[in-house]
Design a protein that fits this description.
The chain is α+β, with helices and mostly antiparallel strands and about 100 residues long. Helix content is about 50%, strand content about 30%. It has one helix and four strands. It has a four-stranded antiparallel beta sheet with strand order 2-1-4-3, covered by helices on one side. The radius of gyration is 24 Å and the shape is rod-shaped.
Length: about 100
């Protein structure tokens, strides 16, 4: 019996929420669904060794985190822009009232 080295990925709202390494006694294909502890996981990586699967899973998580950080930075910039505009308007009104 051959062991298959598999990387499992839990996805929610098009985002990776969890990753797991699994040594499977059965043949697996990409996209297969497994339920572990009541949570569905999809086979996202199949490799020759535990190390190669773990490296690939780490790369997936790094790329996902980079995208999330970029989205959060853009959202924060938009909020800061609105706050600065509001503060500018308040200061302009205060200066008009003083003069």
């Amino acid at each position: 019996m051959q062991i298959t080295h598999v990387g499992l990925v839990a996805i929610f709202n098009n985002r990776i929420t969890k990753v797991k390494y699994l040594e499977s006694k059965f043949s697996r294909e990409l996209g297969d669904t497994l339920t572990i502890d009541g949570k569905p996981y999809r086979v996202g990586v199949i490799g020759d060794s535990k190390a190669s699967v773990c490296l690939t899973l780490n790369d997936l998580v790094k790329k996902q985190n980079k995208i999330v950080r970029r989205e959060n930075k853009i959202a924060a910039a938009k909020v800061n822009q609105k706050i600065n505009a509001t503060f500018g308007n308040i200061m302009a009104e205060a200066l008009k009232n003083c003069i």
